[in-house]
TrEMBL record, chains A, B:
SUPFAM superfamilies per UniProt: PLP-dependent transferases
Keywords: Aminotransferase, Transferase
Protein name per the record: Aminotransferase
Gene3D superfamilies referenced in this protein's UniProt entry, alphabetically: Aspartate Aminotransferase, domain 1, Type I PLP-dependent aspartate aminotransferase-like (Major domain)
Gene Ontology MF annotations: L-aspartate:2-oxoglutarate aminotransferase activity
UniProt xrefs under InterPro entries: AspAT_Ic, PyrdxlP-dep_Trfase, PyrdxlP-dep_Trfase_major, PyrdxlP-dep_Trfase_small
Amino acid sequence: MMSYKEMTKEELQEIRKEVAAKYDELKAKGLKLDMSRGKPNTEQLDISMGMIDTLTDYNLVGEQGVDCRNYGVLDGIIEAKRLLSAMIECPVDNIIIYGNSSLNVMYDTVARSMTHGVMGSTPWAKLDKVKFLCPVPGYDRHFAITEFFGIEMINIPMTEDGPDMDMVEDLVSKDEAIKGIWCVPKYSNPMGITYSDETVRRFANLKPAAEDFRIYWDNAYCIHHLYEDHQDHILEILEECEKAGNPDMVFKFCSTSKVTFPGSGIAAISASKANLDFIKKQMSVQTIGHDKLNQLRHARFFGDFNGMLEHMKKHADIIRPKFEAVLEMLDKELGDLGIAKWTKPNGGYFIGFDTMDGCAKKVVAMCKEAGVVMTPAGATYPYGKDPHDSNIRIAPTFPSTEELKQACEIFVTCVKLVSLDKILETK
Amino acid sequence: MMSYKEMTKEELQEIRKEVAAKYDELKAKGLKLDMSRGKPNTEQLDISMGMIDTLTDYNLVGEQGVDCRNYGVLDGIIEAKRLLSAMIECPVDNIIIYGNSSLNVMYDTVARSMTHGVMGSTPWAKLDKVKFLCPVPGYDRHFAITEFFGIEMINIPMTEDGPDMDMVEDLVSKDEAIKGIWCVPKYSNPMGITYSDETVRRFANLKPAAEDFRIYWDNAYCIHHLYEDHQDHILEILEECEKAGNPDMVFKFCSTSKVTFPGSGIAAISASKANLDFIKKQMSVQTIGHDKLNQLRHARFFGDFNGMLEHMKKHADIIRPKFEAVLEMLDKELGDLGIAKWTKPNGGYFIGFDTMDGCAKKVVAMCKEAGVVMTPAGATYPYGKDPHDSNIRIAPTFPSTEELKQACEIFVTCVKLVSLDKILETK
């Protein structure tokens, strides 16, 4: 295949006819496919079915003598703390176990800062302006939280090593209104990028103007590898922050949503003791405690962290072929055309795809017309505004491999067609 | 027995000697007892053990085809909505199912009002002053929420029919800063009072100065009867509000914490469609959804609302003897002395006890010295300040009946001793 950009107008017009015919043919099939949802498939859910039976020996008393059926234990039973602190890589004393959703923990963290500040700082609701840095493309639900609270979001471009740290350092040190940055440090959503050691160290060594600046470190895919032999690793940020003299600068989040059952998992926050003490003051007003039976269920199901890692291999075996099917199709159909770029992540839930500037919305719209739902173009940017209109998030986990191949065929056809039109505009 | 107040100084001094000797004797036993905790006992938890097995047929697809293991369904599966709407008495369309804690739902409701107002009103954080009416004695965790958000709390005395409605009507109609009132309308915490029909109707017909005034109707004990033949009933407030032309004026809360497992139950809010639509906007930012497996577990365990009512009879059979043991002891030991009053509730979790003015703190302190933990005096009032220093909450459910009898013996002895000293002061 030859790059479109090297072709003559006539060659391009010829190809456009073929591609348009292909599109019409595919559209005529009237398919209903979906590559938008970052959710586990049924086969993945099935490997956790042992969770349903885990407590049927009726022994519901935890190691520390807690009857997990009754009230009590605000911050989580020791078994759950041990499991999730291993997962999120922190001392067992530096974690609070929450309910079923890390998103909810992040929401609560921002909400609390609005009304009560951070470790004694002025409540953000009393400030004229609060800003967050948002590495882009990023996770739409992060941006939805900050938008909901009227927090101004500033785009930070992602590099292959993580966010543009020159820009982060510069902005954070100058502007006291900047109170946080959203990070998915490992197998990022949607690009699958893992932050380099240097990036993590530069984060830990930030010199923020705001005392209540925090790094919102959403380690959603910390153990979500696709390969046994190609796994990404990140430096542990809590420890790096401590080394750098910034022990209170980070909140780490994780959950088992994509380990066991989404919606029926357990979530956690990890931070310095000073941060956790402040959080617990609020938490003790908010709730008597989270679902300890579900905490016990998780701890007993996995036995220990090794059990969890073994479990993750089963997930990898199920979703790896799906990622590979998509990547193969992209390589084969778009590899040399010079009209798109995409990532080949070692883990996580997404493939990040970039069209030529100004093409993403049209591609997604054409896909929809032909029966393929993609994540809306722009969703990976604050306010839904991708300044290049180029980023599209591909979510390969939920559909069957067969469906994925059909969906990809339509997707690449749309990419070709929209790109051809774009190139022809200037010829 | 004769009323203390009718006795001479000498008679009282004689009795005081006897009571003090009794106290020393009881104290010497070195008991460790607790009548402070409104939590179910082990036997109560045991009747819900079927919950542990409920899903072991591995059929985890809900009626409407939802795979309850995966993401999705923000406001609860239909099975859970049907069950809890029957429990809280509302149409199935007027409910949202939450996570494990109605306290958390109430917290979220106030927190959202702080940052985003109520159905479009000015966020309370932007107002100079926000006030809540607090029927007293009441539930300390309600007051903790409003105190946490800096909301000024105004005491409203409770009568046998519910809050003093003359005062409520007057204050609410005059003061735009009053945004809510905390209510436990049935078997109230701690007095076990149930609001009369007239009280409910007067609530529904309030003419609040603030458009964002809401009644926070925590129907925590809606089906928590102690007797089959003496059950309290309340008018359904949502419907009454609608009739009165105030359809949006109430938020109802409930949970299964004291039906199945505290901490592993499901909670709900019920309100008008306009209120729920506003809430869902926030909720969709806060979470992807709550634990649907636990919703399914509850629905399947009970089958239907009748199953839940049958289940509640088992709870009643377990805790009724405990209430009766306490009441018998109070009657026998304090019945005619004229130094205390207490309630005989038909349901709920508490017996409300009033000492003579200025005695509650001393009684609780003396109990503690003799090994009996009571809810701290004052806890049933905003800011922990009981203006009469008279109210003590007795929680009979958790200890064994034998422990309760021992604890009560100490309690009544302390009440006598403190009262005697009080009366002797003025003789």
